[in-house]
Amino acid sequence: VKNPRSVMMGNLFAGTDEAPGSLVTIQGRKYKQYRGMGSLGVMSSGISSDRYFQKKEIGKTKFVPEGVEGVTPYVGPVQEVIYQMIGGLKSAMGYTGSATIHEMHTRTRFIKITQAGYLESHPHNITITDEAPNYRI
């Protein structure tokens, strides 16, 4: 999509303090439990019946789930996630010499890279010992 004006960010915020779901620890790492509104668990509980125009009396086998349930890494307060995103945006605007987001849209273009290029552009051949808030293992 060229020059999007909106984005879907549910997964980005799913691991925050403000997101619904319990905090769990798995092998020493913290995670937030995640249940998408279109998941089988939520649909069968009746919580999403209005959203998906379901009859509350139908059984689990009649649902057509569109979401999943699982865990996502815990990331802390949503304020910190947004702070990191703003920092990344400011950095990108600086790299492109853009004073406004609109100006950045006109100065940049999307370039698709290969999986090999993606892997090469990230840290490799190193064991990360301290995670940065904007780069998690």
Any key phrases for this structure?
single chain; 137 residues; alpha+beta; three-stranded antiparallel sheet; 5 helices; 31% helix; globular
Summary of the model, kept short:
This protein is an alpha+beta fold. It is 31% helix and 12% strand.
How would you characterize this protein structure?
- The protein has 137 residues and is an alpha+beta fold.
- The protein has a domain at 1-76.
- 31% of the residues lie in helices and 12% in strands.
- The chain contains five helices and three strands, in the order αββαβααα.
- It has helices spanning 10-13, 40-45, 78-96, 101-107, 115-120; strands at 23-26, 29-35, 69-73.
- A three-stranded antiparallel sheet has the order 1-2-3.
- Strand 1 (23-26) and strand 2 (29-35) form a beta hairpin.
- The two termini are 28 Å apart.
- The relative contact order is 0.13.
- The model has no long low-confidence stretch (mean pLDDT 83).
Question: Overall 3D geometry?
Answer: globular
Derived structural class? alpha+beta
User: How far is the N terminus from the C terminus?
Assistant: 28 Å
The percent range for helix content is 25-40%
Topology:
Blueprint (H helix, E strand, L loop, with lengths): L9 H4 L9 E4 L2 E7 L4 H6 L23 E5 L4 H19 L4 H7 L7 H6 L17
